[in-house]
Amino acid sequence: DAIHKFTTHLAERYGVIFVGDVSSAKLVKTKMAKSVLDAGWHQLKTQLKYKAIARSGVFEEVNEAYSTQVCSCCGAKPDSSPKGRAGLGIRHWICSECGAEHDRNINAAKNILAAGGHPRLDGGILALQGE
Length: 131
Description:
single chain, 2 domains, disordered C terminus
């Protein structure tokens, strides 16, 4: 029920939706299996896709590789960015190339939007920040 309500809300509110291409099938084979299965990632993406399309919206999965590590301001992949599983605990970082301060998730969202061909959709970013 929660996934249905959440995906309906997103599909009704946003005409363009980009999501990262996280493979829940691959993550199930890792130590994060229980979390992935509990979150219902595949179901969420499936519902979001069909609801967006039913409302004449756009739904696109994009390559999210390095989306948390690349600076969304300058495009660099600096040494100061969080790396791999070891960097999962790093929630905020400063780009050593341009000095921009980043929240890990917001930075990744901006990079996913850019990968979808929309460099900066402020409405989407604000939605991710909780408005």
